Structure formats: structure tokens, C-alpha cells
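Entry under discussion copied across for reference:
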Amino acid sequence: MSTPILICDDSKLARRQLARSLPDDWDIKVEFAEHGLDCIEKIKEISPEILFLDLNMPHLDGYGVLQAIQDQGLNVLTVVVSGDIQPSAHQRVMELGAIDFIRKPCDAQKLEEIITHHGIKDKAIRANLVHKLGEQLEPEIRDIYQEIANVAMGQAGDLLARLLNVFVELPIPNVNVLEVNELHMALQAIDANATTSGVCQGFIGGGVSGEALLLLNDSSFKEIASLMKYQGELNQKVELELLMDVSNILIGAILTGLSRQLDMPFSQGHPVVLGQHCEVSELVKANKSRWQRTLAIEISYGIEHHNINCDLMLLFTEDSLKTLKYKVAYLLDD
């Protein structure tokens, strides 16, 4: 499935030049918008992964588009491409949610650098995997997995909220069957440009086994320490303790929530540190032998008004799929 890309510019020449500057090895489907109002409609219509946006346009300019994207909660990565190179213009578009700014005329090398820097290709690959692999599960079964995960996720989020005295933002869980290479790509695309620390904990019970994987962005540690009233030096040992605290809360609570709903007690193994302060790609490479074809449930936790983000993935072994399907089918019959 090709990645949908939207280019918005009132100049036909500029639109074509930018389209020709996109990497040749990127499987994309490019759509065009001629002004801001057209852009908003196209975003709603085709749900592009990435928007390349001009600023000076009739009907609605680029600033208005960025504001509308925020106001309407539209989900798209936006790169501004403009001849307006004033520092204030750059600052304003970043404040309005753009991820980067490219000067016109567009330079193919600069464009490639920005795409690589922000992991845009990886994010698009991951979105395509979610779309494609979700189709491998029967819709009713997938919905049950998602709802069970949603309930368990809420219980884990509640514990974290009480511990830190914050509001925890809860997403819709992603549920997919992933082959080993696809799982590696999905993990690497979680945050391609940030260093991460990870913990993995095995679980088994009733013919079902797997691992719970927690990835915590390293930029989160300072705020977690502050919320937990930690006053000392934030060194690697302390960060490991904080990582373990968060993983124990989230992994323990979500497995308990799943266990109760499936009427299937889980025994948990000892947590294993997969790595600290490394890129996700390095973490995955070092542990790739651990993961094969799997049912993956991904939950991305965030905390309102704080730069704290962590991803929790439940990876069930392929041998577990038959038992799980039987369990959720039983719930459906009830």
C-alpha cells in the first residue's frame, strides 16, 4: 500500500518541482491541493501521512491551515515549504505544529535530509503496517482484542496517574499480527530519532505466552523524577530504578487486567533490561532473536502537560494465537 502524500501550493510549478524532489525509493501516492481550503478538504478526504505546505496562498494561507489542523484535530505530519525565510515565519510555523521548514526552491538533498531526520519514511511504513496487518484478523476478533486491551490499559493508566498525580492520556490500542521483519520495522518507527530505554518481561499461563515490552523515551526521565519528588542526582542507576518502577506498574497492571477478562492467570518472569540510552534500532537489533511472528498489542501512553512518553507492546507468541482466538470467540458468544 502506497503512502499518501499531500502537496499544497497555489503554484502548479512549485507542486511539480516538489513532487519530483521526493526520494525515488519511497512508495508514495502524491495528491495536490491548490490553496488552504482545498488542503483541509483533501486532508479529511485522503488522510495523508505527510503534508508539504506552502505559506502564501489565496483563500486560506499556510498559517491558517496549520491552525485549522490543530483546531480540528487532524492527524498529519506537516513540513512547511516556503520562500518566506524570515526567522519569525519559521518560529511561527513551528509553534503551530509544523515539524520542519524548507526554503524554496526545494532542494532534493535538503528534503531527503529532513525526511531522514524526522523518520518520516519509518512512520509511514509503520502506519501502512497497521493498516495492512489489521486486515489479517477477523474484524470481530480484532475488536474484542482491542476492547480487552482498552480495559486493561485503563487500569494501568489509573495506577500511573495516582502514583504521579497527573492525567494520563490513553490512546486506542493498535492490534495486529506481525511477521518478524514487520515487527522490527514497527518497533524502530516508534521514535526513530530519540534515544530510548527498554524493559522486557515474559509471561505465561493457560496455553498463552509472550512478552511485555516497555520503551521509555530518555527525555521522560527528568520529569518522571520530578513528579516522584526525587531530589538527588539523576544518574544512570536512578534512571534504571525509575524505568523499573514505571514498567512494574504498567506491565503488572495490564497483565492483571487481561488475566481477569480472559479468566487466565499469568505467571510473570523477571524483567530484563534490553538497553539504556540507545536508539530503538540498536535495541531491536540487539534483541531481534527474541521476537518472531506475533500478535502485537501496542499502547502509547502520554502524560498531559509533561514530556513523558512510553510505548507498551504485548507480544504474544504464534503458538498462543489459537488459544487466544478460542478465548475471545467464547466471549463473543456470551
Observations:
- The longest helix spans residues 236-262.
- Confidence is low (pLDDT under 50) at residues 129-135.
- DSSP finds twelve helices and 13 strands in the chain.
- Residues 128 and 282 are 22 Å apart (CA to CA).
